[in-house]
């Protein structure tokens, strides 16, 4: 069988090269020129054809009958043909190796796929067994559920009777709820009226106390103004006393220095002393009036303190009323919460 790549043109070129070397183109020499490739049975008919075409026409000549340039050119062609043949052989071998590698890789992939399919088959077998086991369990569970369903039907009849009893209890609770609502509404109205009255009374008491406080403040301001005036008058009297004392001292000095005139001015001195005594008496009277004013002011302060205590008591009472109101509101909220719980319980029972 001829190898791939041995053609008539290859045999023709090899025969020409052998003939150019001055040798007789035979099957062995042509095969050697082809690089020892190709079978003799393939080369022989091709070489015979070449001889019939070229040797009969006298195309083959000996070396002695050819020019040297032609021989050199033929040798170059021969060398080129040898290189081309070697390259073709190398390319063919590389192609064969690549095809062999591809076939090997394909074989490996096929083996891998076979192993995967084997694993899938084993998994499917295991899954089939698990499915059969689950099916048997489902059959058992179906039987159990059928028995349970029969039991539930029996229990349902009992629950229906209990539901009827609960309906009667709910009706009784509804009647009680209506009574509680009525009582709660009445209590709310009474509480609201009482809180309104207490709020009005507390506001009235606070208004009266505020008016009394304003009046006392005005009276206190008047007493303070009077006290300031009396203090100013007292200061003036004290200044007059100091001035008179100074004048008396000056008079005494003048009397001592002018003794001969003492008798003459003694009467005047006595009059001045009498005037000073009168001024001192007036000063004592003013001091007494000042003390009386201070006593009255202290009494007014006590009255203001009493009014402040009364106002504090009123505020405490208002706070206690507010606390009582908060307690009533909390109690009201508690009753509302209980009422909401009763309503929610009724709705749940209705459901």
What does this structure look like?
This protein is mainly α and 351 residues long. The chain folds into two domains: 104 residues, no CATH class; 179 residues, Orthogonal Bundle (Helix Hairpins), CATH 1.10.287. The chain is 90% helix and 0% strand. It is elongated, with a radius of gyration of 73 Å.
Topology at a glance:
Blueprint: H1 8-20, H2 27-33, H3 40-55, H4 68-257, H5 262-350
Helix pairs in contact: 1-2, 1-3, 1-4, 2-3, 4-5
The CATH class of the largest domain is Mainly Alpha
Whole-number total of structural domains = 2
What is the CATH architecture assignment of the largest domain?
Orthogonal Bundle
Question: Cα-atom Rg, whole angstroms?
Answer: 73 Å
Order of helices and strands: HHHHH
Helix-residue proportion: over 70%
**Rounded average pLDDT:** 80
Which fold does the CATH topology of the largest domain refer to? Helix Hairpins
Shape: elongated
Largest sheet: none
The fraction of residues assigned to DSSP E strands is: under 5%
Q: Unreliable runs, pLDDT <50, ≥5 residues?
A: 58-65
Determine the number of helices (DSSP H or I, runs of at least 4 residues).
5
Beginning-to-end CA distance, first to last residue = 98 Å
Tell how many strands the DSSP assignment holds: 0
Please state the structural category: mainly alpha
